[in-house]
Amino acid sequence: MLNELQTKQALQQVLDSVELPKLTKKDEKVFLERLAQHFPSLIGQLHTLYGERYDFFLYLQKLVVVLAKAFAGRKRKWKNLDEKRLSNPSWYRSEKMLGMAVYVDLFAGDLKKLQMKIPYLKSLGINYLHLMPLYKAPEGDSDGGYAVSDYRKVDPKLGTEKDLAQLAEALSDEGISLVLDFVFNHTSDEHQWAEQARKGNPEFKDFYYFFTDKQEVEEYNQTCREIFPTVRRGSFTFLEDVEKYVWTTFNSFQWDLNYSNPAVFNAITDEMLFLANIGCEGLRLDALAFIWKEKWTQCESLPKAHTLIQCFNTCLQIAAPAVLFKSEAIVHPDEVAQYIDKQECQLSYNPLMMALMWESLATRETKLLTASLKKSFEISDQCSWVNYIRCHDDIGWTFDDAVAEQLGINGYEHRRFLNQFYTGKFDGSFSQGVPFQENPTTGDCRVCGSLASLAGLERAIEADDSQAIEHALKRIRLLNSINLSIGGIPLIYQGDELGILNDHSYLNDEFKREDARWVNRPQISPQAVALAETKGSYQHRINQDLKQMIALRRNHPEFGNAKTEILETYRSQLFAYCRTNAKGEQLLALCNFAESTQSIPASICDILGSRRPRDLLSGNQLVGEDILLAAYDVLWLKVTE
Ligand code: GLC
Ligand code: GLC
């Protein structure tokens, strides 16, 4: 490690030896100040990764030029945004934050038409918009766009680079933060780097992991998890033409990048800053757990994976500090937590809460949810969860087996039960999901389906059972209520605001048929929107329930920057938490995860200092010694006078 003086000298040496692009006096000052401020982190992190190399300094020089060029090319609009966000660093913890994730084509048709949907988004209160991967990708199967062939080109089916730039500006003008995918674990095999590497071009041959020795590949396979076991066993693909194996954690056409090569780090940083300069404010770090590999490890969440992400973040702090990182670590909760840090990922998906809300609905018991969130919900107050109920992927049951064990739950058996339950195979299940990636060796499996179908609406409508329908609607409301109030940015997945059911049309498409996740990637048709606007429809009810809660969230600061305490209810069906902000404003949420009425003594409200709070949702003030919660009821309690 370098000391302070050596770091200063190193910076000076870099600046003396490279030619930086032309900048205005003011911009030059900003850039050099930021570079000086973050250089100790930058060089430290790079040194951890590449310090052993004789050419370390060369790559450092090149990186500084990449940063300077990106900064020079950054529009004034985004530079102003940088300043704005730096002066209010906790902006993303506001109660006004509300996210939505959409596919450009499925939601709007193309980028131009998406721009016309801004009023729709605003009418919902959306100010954070995640556009699913929209980059150039292989024809046919591209893993829903997660096989990127060119980070700088827009998929021509969605429009042009100019359309994207215009959309980014329009969103920003309307106060909507654009979030894009940073798919940096792999590229598609059609990316020019991959094509050059395949041809043996010396500049690119170490951009990916190639092996000629089958033995070595099998050694790695012994310790690595299989992600898509029904597509292909193991983590490698044999390339017949060049007689080599290439590392492919996901599909065979998604080649893992080799970050042990500093040229890859520099090249991807360049691509990342290109995305930042489109004007996005968030980058979703796709599959970030897999980016560093070491023999005889699981090759997931290794210490250097963290260093690598921190290093990317440092680059952003220098060249585009308005941009946040969102971690997509769908792994063990203790590992999820390790990515959440101001210096690493300011935002993170909350897969634990997502999975356990579903778990509690299936079991009608909240003990695993309560115990797990007590342990894992609290994160740095400079960071924020991105809470979600459904997304474009499957549901994996990523809870901590040790926590389950203490409650007498066997993790393995319980996951089997949950898979059975949510694929509707368990007797009495309300759910209608589709199994995904059953692993013949481990018996592991995940579940796909839309919020409404998994919560029971599809099955209840088929059975024409009005009570079952009522319960399904209330389950949806219950999950939405937690998502909106427990603390973090709520992320609504396209179509869930409209109560859209599973979409089986993917079975007719040869490129989608094998990937059940398409069952929850529906086209958002005008009819679906109209149905949700039609009074008396189930979809209208779902939509109205959601809108009511969104309006309450926006108007009460306790939903924003506040601390969450998960409470013990001593009632197996109830789940409770209390939010308190710096001004002492509080909200107590009580949720019933069962279809039977539950009661709890009003003394649970003592945390609010009054047993007579008002429920924001119904407007009713509590009376009496016991609080009653009907089937799947939710109370948002606040002392109002
Ligand atoms: C992420 C995406 C998923 C994709 C995978 C590979 O997990 O959410 O859809 O298959 O990464 O890019
Ligand atoms: C694995 C990955 C997760 C991804 C999913 C896609 O579970 O850990 O990141 O979303 O596969 O199916």
UniProtKB/TrEMBL annotation:
SUPFAM superfamilies: (Trans)glycosidases, Glycosyl hydrolase domain. Pfam families: Alpha-amylase. GO terms for molecular function: amylosucrase activity; hydrolase activity, acting on glycosyl bonds. Residues 101-553 form the Glycosyl hydrolase family 13 catalytic domain. InterPro entries: Amylosucrase, GH, GH13_cat_dom, Glyco_hydro_b, O16G_dom_2. It comes from the Bacteria. SMART domains: Aamy. One of its GO terms (biological process) is carbohydrate metabolic process. This is Alpha amylase, catalytic region. It comes from Vibrio sinaloensis DSM 21326.
